[in-house]
Write a structure and sequence with these properties.
367 residues; alpha/beta; 12 strands
Length: 367
């Protein structure tokens, strides 16, 4: 019933083992799992990891291992597309090799999919748990705080009118380890855009929704998103990228912005078109990793034009209150404001010195 694609690159063997075992231990077992590996053979854990993967495959034929088709520059979007081509089950999910499923995940997905009555639903997404570390400085000593959060906490989604879905998906990310997609719908839009190093997941969902389809939010926590120093999207890792890689990243995000600009309510990125943006970025010597933050439109006449434009797009006249809600929904604000902190799953560590501080930062702590 399900295909699970796991792209990996220099993935800690410990994390990948937990990931694969979480799939193997699902209470519903009708799946195929495809590992797509871009790791160079001279990586320090390569042999150890190969041994672990082969051990799992030897005992369970549902797991397959494949090398990345582009080992020179193994981007995740290419890995995901390659994995998509390997399987043929009607539903497909993409899972990070450092993340994992809870045992009930696939069974819950199966039940919700079988109960679905809306033919326009192209994907289902559940909530995802994660942890975040912060340091509290009390002068003579520090406290390490580990807090648990729930992502994909999009309760509002179930109550949105269908014509709002494109606006919602223009800016709101759905974390892939909680997202199950109809294979046919992914193939119709051509899979992931391989030009994008970042945001390819948001882009894929947005393109599916632009065909007239939408998703179904599911009220359960099915997966865990692991945050650690070795993540590809970790700030420390990304800050080490070359200037050309950073420019490519920023331009890719700009392309996605202009692709959905008509769905952004009340925002201005500062460039009139993509070509102006590209030329400006190519001339910069210093460039931060990230696109220029869109700014609110504040001119009263421009706001009036925006309200009229959005009203025409939605087929109904909207109020200023509705305009402001849509502005928040299409400016990446909804995600940050809906992340749910689990207050009773907080852990504190007293850190007496730099050694303990360093250990706390590097240690893998899951609450």
């Amino acid at each position: 019933m399900f295909d699970i694609v796991i792209p990996i690159l220099n993935m800690k063997t410990k994390y990948l083992k937990e990931c694969l075992e979480s799939i193997k231990n699902q209470t519903f077992g009708e799946f195929k799992c495809y590992i797509v590996d871009g790791t160079p053979e001279n990586w320090k854990e390569y042999k150890k990891q190969q041994k672990m993967i082969k051990s799992i495959m030897k005992k369970d034929e549902r797991f397959e291992y494949h090398r990345h088709p582009n080992l020179e520059e193994p981007y995740v979007s290419e890995s995901q597309n390659h994995g998509l081509k390997l399987g043929d089950n009607p539903y497909v999910q993409f899972l990070g090799g450092d993340d994992f499923f809870y045992p009930h995940h696939l069974l819950n997905m199966k039940q919700f999919i079988e109960d679905e009555k809306d033919n326009d639903v192209a994907f289902w997404f559940c909530m995802v748990k994660t942890n975040e570390k912060t340091i509290l400085d009390f002068g003579n000593f520090k406290v390490g705080r580990v807090s648990a959060f729930i992502e994909n906490h999009y309760i509002l989604y179930s109550f949105l009118n269908k014509n709002i879905y494109p606006l919602f998906h223009s800016a709101t990310p759905i974390f892939m380890n909680g997202l199950m997609l109809k294979r046919d719908e992914v193939e119709v839009v051509g899979g992931f855009n391989e030009d994008y190093e970042m945001g390819e997941d948001v882009d894929l969902v947005r393109r599916i929704v632009k065909t007239g389809k939408h998703g179904r939010w599911l009220p359960y926590v099915g997966a865990y998103l692991r945050k650690h120093d070795g993540q590809t999207t970790n700030r420390k890792t990304m800050d080490k990228l070359s200037k050309e890689r950073i420019k490519k990243w920023v331009i890719g995000m700009g392309e996605q912005y202009f692709d959905s600009k008509d769905l952004k309510v009340g925002w201005d990125i500062g460039w009139d078109n993509l070509e102006d943006m590209k030329q400006d970025i190519q001339t910069k010597d210093e460039l931060k990793l990230g696109m220029a933050n869109p700014k609110h439109i504040t001119d009263k006449n421009e706001i009036k034009k925006e309200v009229e434009r959005v009203s025409k797009m939605l087929g109904k006249e909207i109020t200023m209150a509705e305009y402001e809600v849509l502005q928040g929904l299409t400016g990446s604000q909804y995600h940050s404001k809906t992340v749910l902190e689990i207050a009773n799953e907080e852990t504190m560590f007293i850190l007496h010195n730099d050694e303990e501080l360093d250990k706390f930062i590097k240690e893998d702590i899951i609450t």
